[in-house]
Amino acid sequence: QLADPRAAKIPRYVRVNALKTSLDDALADLNARGFSQGDTAEGKKFVQDPHVPNLLAFDAARTEMSSDPAYLRGELILQDKASCFPALVLNPPAHADANVIDATAAPGNKTTHLAALMQNRGTLFAFERDKRRFKTLETMLARAGASNVRAQNADFLSVDPHDATYARVSHILLDPSCSGSGIVNRLDYLLDDAAEEQEEERDERLEKLAAFQQSMIAHAMKFPSVSRIVYSTCSVHAAENERVVRAALLASSGAWVLAPRDQVLPTWERRGVQDELGDVGDAANLVRCMPGEDATNGFFVSCFERAPATGQSAI
Ligand code: SAM
Where on this chain does S-adenosyl-L-methionine bind (predicted)? Predict the structure, then answer.
């Protein structure tokens, strides 16, 4: 039972896993089992998402996917729409020498998405600090057929950016722990903003999370060959979103800038909040999702890219 009325407005999203099947084959399989494409996700009708390739939206109230045979074969991955944005925005390379990091990987939805975009080529280093969640990650990687992933049960902050192993890493996805305040359709996240939590307590909690999130971005920025970092949260709080991005840009002293809107889901309407980002960049380069309004959970995506060299000494 879902306590939040906004949850009813979110379809059951399913990503077709290109590592195991093609979109055409997945659609044929669904059709053979009585599903059909329609204009709305209702009953046995599903919709192809306009923003995320390979994403299908089903009727959440009437579609139980966790026992679906295609899901059990790893051909379908249950992943909310907004949670597909970070890997798309990171746009990882897909060649034999590609080196990419997923810094906070479990349960592995975005890791398997990255592996699919990389067509299982190159190496995707995936870190997960928590032992139990790491096991879930391993199960998910195996089920999805993500064979280019080197998963490690390790704290990303303890990974040495100057270790030769990571010398060629060009892209990092950073989706760290957050308050989860944007998630309205999962009971394990409904603890955020609990009525009994005082404003003061909440602010303190958000402050701690923001300091951790900033340290993760600062660490990612230290990898010498990295040119692109996507930072995302499933929070609706500016304290974990625009304000963290602002602090990260200021701390980088001009070495990093925000990737322009045309590389960051340009057709998605809801963008960042300029007042919260301030004068360090254009909030139109950021993506936000609002639960109940955007047919997905609350979410935030930002993309940092290394500032072009000025011809003078490196900043
Ligand atoms: N990206 C995942 C996905 O799409 O399936 C969800 C990631 S979840 C929001 C954040 C994860 O980061 C948690 O599993 C948490 O245990 C892990 N984590 C937090 N701090 C970490 C750190 N310093 N190093 C590695 N993993 C960390």
Answer: 128, 155, 175
